Amino acid sequence: MAEVVEYTLVVLTALVFAGASVAVYGQYAQVQAAFVSKASFSELTNLAQDAVLNGSSTSSFVIPQSTLTCSGGALSLSTSSGNQSAATGVSCDFHFNIQAGLHTFVFTYNSTVLTLGVD
User: Fold this and answer.
1) 93: Cβ–Cβ under 8 A, 6 or more apart, which residues?
2) pLDDT by residue (tens digit) across 54-95?
3) Does residue 18 surpass a pLDDT of 80?
């Protein structure tokens, strides 16, 4: 009888640890997705500002699945972990649905409008 109780306690303890591990990983995945989204948007806004100052800017980096739009001078990035936007200070009008992965972003500014090309 003692062996059955001991075995039951071992199995229940293992299940508790497994459940806790799943919960911790789930929280980690959400935090990581939010961090990647914010870092991607920061890189995009820096590229846009650099293009306004220098005429063009190019960078390649990994980005999560997202929608990137710019309209009325506001650059916006929407991902599964949230939406972010920032003013560009210049006219712009583009919309991209971006699949997750490595992409090259080419911002150009011709003294009137900011444009973007994505590879």
Assistant:
1) 70, 71, 113
2) 999 999 999 999 999 999 899 999 998 889 999 988 999 999
3) no
Query: Number of structural domains, the chain?
Result: 1
Please report which helix (H) or strand (E) contains residue 95, including its range.
Answer: strand 91-98
Reading the block at residue 46, the tokens are 């820096």
DSSP string of 24-59?
HHHHHHHHHHHHHHHHHHHHHHHHHHHHHHHSEEEE
> What's the whole-model pTM score?
0.75
Angle (CA) 75-81-87 rounded to 5° is 15
**Domain limits for position 69:** 2-118
Q: Which residues contact 71 (CB under 8 A, 6 or more apart)?
A: 92, 93, 95
